[in-house]
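Extended Data, record Polar amino acid transport system substrate-binding protein
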Amino acid sequence: MRKLFLGTVMALGFVSVMNAAAVAGPTMDRVMKAGEMKVATNSGWPPQSYLDDNNKLVGFDVDVANEIAKRLGVKVRFETPEWNVMTGGRWHGRFDVAVGSVTPTKARSQVIDFAGIYYYSPYVFAVHKDSKATSRDDLNGKKIGVETGTTSEDYINRRLEIDAPGLPPIQYTLTPGEVKTYADSMLPFDDLRLGDGTRIHAVIAPEQTAQNAIKNRYPVKILPGEAAFKEPLVVVTDKGDPEWTAKLGTVIQAMKDDGTLSKLTTKWYGNDYSK
């Protein structure tokens, strides 16, 4: 994704909504005039964002987007595009912002901008509960499932480049026998639940996603030991309006400082992933 504005942006502080339209560029002007913020997110990625039993969009990212809009004094209109559309930029006003647990990579920084980190996610190795694997070393030569177009796919193919300061270098210690890709985050778990090695032997996924699968009684477990990698997740804007990106950055920082993001991650994930 794009290069973080975390230096100047986070130091600016929260600008009042009264002054926002005057200082935050054409996107802010459009949002304030319409009284709504068009947010791109996912519709099938629990607990980040998904449709509940009443067909209502809910989840951590949904709560974050609603809170950002509340602080701007506007309402939210959610859109649920394909992942590559959300992260591919050139939105042409279709969305004002994306709140979809997007990782800032160097490749993405060429087409979209990053307003700020709002939480972190360790990526873990999940296996069937009957698996005899006890560490990632036991997965060498095995069939690994990942969601396509994500950092887990980049990691397993040894091409992951996260664009954020202060993160340790990625350590590649796994050589899979086969990589199987899936269109969304839960499909690899659907294959894994069929049995150890029936279709795949393991899934690389965010800890939050794996824990959600376990919570929903998928017969899987997380291998002990260090995570494959820890990634920051950012709020995304289209290129071309740095004032809007900076404005959102101040809102995100305020949500960190007052504990809102800590509360929301704990609400949805059971742990504080805001730091």
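Summary. The mean pLDDT is 91.
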